[in-house]
What we know:
Blueprint: E1 3-7, E2 10-13, E3 18-25, E4 34-39, E5 46-51, E6 57-59, E7 67-72, E8 77-82, E9 91-99, E10 102-105, E11 109-114
Amino acid sequence: QVQLVESGGGLVRAGGSLRLSCAASGIIFRHNAMGWYRQAPGKQRELVARITTGGITNYADSVKGRFTISRDNAKNTVSLQMNSLKPDDTAVYYCSTGTGARVYWGQGTQVTVSS
């Protein structure tokens, strides 16, 4: 049974930083690309950052230069370091991965950035 558990969300002022973590179980972690997505109220879920099994990363244009995704295959975790946060970054952040045709999601963690 695949489980993704996010942590690290919270309330922060604009310009501040947060670090999100996602602990994965039920998968061979080092064999899976991992992603962070977010969904703001009234908007569609969007990709924030992704990291491949080989450590190649890609980011949404809106977060490039401010967010960094990383993975620790020994601990089965993927993290998202978020710096210079803006009110537009306010959303529920989800960890995600896929195996075959299935996509798995965590329960999400709320990030709120006040102006």
